[in-house]
Amino acid sequence: MAEATPKVAGFDPVWDRIRAEAREMVEREPILGGLVHSGILHHRSLERALAYRMALKLASGEMTDQILREIVDEAYGSDEALGRAARADIVAVFERDPACHRFIQPVLFFKGFQAIQAYRVAHWLWRHERREMAYFIQMRVSEVFGLDIHPNAVIGQGIMIDHAHSIVIGETAVVGDNVSMLHSVTLGGTGKDDGDRHPKIGNGVLIGAGAKVLGNIEVGYCTRIAAGSVVLADVPPCKTVAGVPARIVGEAGCAQPSVMMDQVIGEDAPGD
After folding, report:
1. Superfamily grouping for domain 166-272
2. What's the pTM value of the predicted model, to 2 decimals?
């Protein structure tokens, strides 16, 4: 597995690899030179590159890219965990998405990765009582990338959101480390109740396309949720659930569902 740690004493393998891939990209496709230089090669760190890219994407007539970049730079400068999470997310996408062949791709092209980094900055703002600005970033992420992630949600690192269309993650949702989810996933509530009302997703969970996990329920670690399922009750660890409403149809089938990305339910699974 590629190293996902931040820069330590001048050693930052994720960023070094991205810069090497950037130079190769310019040689292969010179017409992208401006994009690659401004987005990658002009920056001294991954954090600086992400701040530039994020500000460029989320800027609007209501908020300039310069102001947004200052905010994002402040967040990265204040909390090294943001950079560590970004590196873990890059490695997760590279290892789990068969369409990702280089570390540079999520940074430049993959909206799921870019959206989750913007969420992380919004979450930092939320924790520092800058909630109006956090809401602004949430709004722009929804408008630009098509994901709606509340800035109060708690999301771990090593996250892979594939295709990343119509993802909804509610205010009190918790997502563990090394989770993978596909498009049109909802981690939502079940009504108008306030308070703690959203799902808690354990480490290593795989959530299939179109799955809905609703209410203040717990999904145990290393569980698989089949595409199109509606999960309304707690799920024990290391199980596969499917259906509407979802029920247990077997074991998870492997030690790391979110890494293996195997969404096929075996023919011998109970209830098939």
Report:
1. Hexapeptide repeat proteins (2.160.10.10)
2. 0.92
